[in-house]
Amino acid sequence: MHLDLDAFFAAVEQRDKPSLRGRPVVVGGTTGRGVVATASYEARVFGVRSAMRTVEARARCPHAAFLSGRFDAYRESSRVVMARLREVSPLVEPLSLDEAFVDLAAGTTAVDVATVRALAEEVRADITRLTGGLVASVGIASSKLMAKIASEIDKPDGLHVVEPGTEVDVLAPMSVTAIPGVGPATTERLRRLGLRTVGDLQQADVTELTSVLGTAHGTSLHALARGVDHRAVVSEREAKSVSVEDTFETDLTDPAVLAGIVDRMAARVGDRLTRAGLSGRTVTLKIRHHDFQTHTRSSTLAGPTDDRRVLARTARRMLAEIDVSGGLRLVGVGVSGLADWVQDDLFAELDDAEEAAAAALADEPAVVEEDHGPRRWSPGADVLHADHGPGWVWGSGLGRVTVRFETRDTGPGPVRTFSVDDPDLQPRPVLSPAETEP
Amino acid sequence: MKFRIERDTLADAVAWTARSLPTRPSVPVLAGLLVEADADGLTLSGFDYETSARATLQAEIADEGRALVSGRLLADICKSLPSKPVDVTLDGTKVSVVCGGARFSLQTMPVEEYPQLPGMPGASGTVSSGVFATSVSQAVAAAGRDDMLPLLTGVRLEIDGSTISLMATDRFRASLRDVEWYPEAGDASAHALVPARVLSETAKSFSSSSDVTIAIGTPEHGDGIIGFEGQVAGGTRRTTTRLLEGEFPRVRQLFQAESQTTAYVQTQELIDSVRRVSLVAERNTPVRLSFSSGVLLLEAGSGDEAQASETIDATVEGDDISIGFNPQYLLEGLTVMGEPVVHLAFTQHTRPAALAGVGEIGADPDLAFRYLIMPVRLQG
User: Which of A17, A390, A415, B180 has the greatest number of CB atoms lying within 10 Å of its CB?
Assistant: First the structure.
């Protein structure tokens, strides 16, 4: 079974912001060169799509609500959904916050078509109830490939079961892009061979495919086109990396503040490695710019380490090469290439002694509280006002911030405008710790 | 410009000078080799703004003058000439090279665009070229190769009276080599950080000379550069290079005398054994060395994959110890040891191990060259 939450980020926003229900909502980078993360179905009518530039989305759908996203809220809803799926079967493989495979054969129910259809309808209803209104589409089939394709067929708010034996016929009329891993480049190469539909692929000779796509890709595509996919649902993947990341309340631009954050993240990663009896050789720095563009940079060390100083030094060096002037909304530090041994540093002890001496000399504490400058209220963010209660940022500018006071349990609420530094207005706290372990 | 010279003398000097020319020059003239003929003889120069090479040699000068020609091409030509006198003549914008019946005509580059070579700093002292070449090859074994950390790609030279110390580290191992030399002043004291690759090539290239003069620049003369000069059969050769800047890690502090366990092992036997067992150590996963009475057990690999083990004779004093190393670090130190027996000293399995060469089992370690390796710590 493959389950996919429909227009997930936008749906969470519409749930928590009653005045936006039934209206076009676009979640993504709201400033400058931002891109769309998710558009609600109301916005999709106007041609707004994921990964489209926000500027273009605004041109196509100027009356939509453009929100900058609340990842903590998305994570919380995702947690509820994944917990419900784990009641169905112990074998649940989340692909992202809004998508997962479930191996029904590993569950307790029978796997005939009627039973799984009833089970899926029950799960979909439960998810809507437990999350306060989110809608999921489900595909059920004999393989991961077919289940994922099936969940697209009756989307949104749909359920599609591909009966065993009908896979080839279901796939044949589809465009080759329906197969996961077939992007623009592969599509173009296939087009030159005259292959446009999966049916064309099914007819094609495997050597013809491998000659243009390479052996691995060509062979796997040949199999997938026939619905042949033996990949198992894997719930607990062996840890391949250890990482920590944080989304900031306001975008950060100060290199010194960011370097301090990277240092502390490196220390957390180092501590977790040490506790797990692991070490890693490749350090990765992940950053998300103010406009949602996300990049990672990696650096491979001479030998694996769990030393927080080495991790911090390496991550800082990569940070120094990044232009942060536009503001970063997320930073993460991770380590991969895991091993169970550490190549220690000859100078670690000398460095320790020096650091201790330096710390003893300095009277002030080593960690200075960062001042993020004037508060910035990003559109869609949750706030709490001393008199008016909970609400969300409708927009801000010219020293003022406009808030709509409503929650998922109220009806559409009233709008009020305040000064951006109004002491009665505070961000509403995050729901869960922003720490991930992929 | 017009001169005549013996083929071997010319070919040696051109090859030596062209060796340091950049393969991808930032400006075209840097691919050139400057040929100058004057009353003192012939001078050949190459320069890439970091490292300069200059050879002076005797030749029969008919006309003085100078020309800039492609260094690689001239070197290739000289190498293949027959063993006869060579006549070199500048004629307009071309240089002709005539040897026996062979005749080459080379395009010249504009001499006036060629940069001025840095001068040689005042001499600091001299050292035997053979000793210098061996010492440098030992010291550079521990130098870093990561260009992201340029400081660690250098070898630090410390002059203290009649001793030069060469040291290098990539933070995982460290080398320290002391060399006796003849300083210009008995109380000489100076230090310099020389790019390891340049130092290594330079030391090798002076092997046909008997002595090498070392000249470290001072703020007054040749600041930030180091020069090396030697006499060879054909004349004088001189190299300068720009020093690296920065505070080098305090390598000397790492070398401590105490040890809980010492062992003597035949150097070549240990090298062969580490090479064999590390065949199963993928991506330099550790080789474990376990020393107990009379025996050294080497093991590599993990239970999930291939494994290897071997025992060799060892003379062990003190506590038994089991310690893991990156096999590459171990081999790079052992192969420059130069003595038939290696002396290993350990305190704990998490502390650095010191290697030094000895002439025979039981002898005191020769502290002229010491190599320190940080062991691998096995987790969990």
Answer: A17
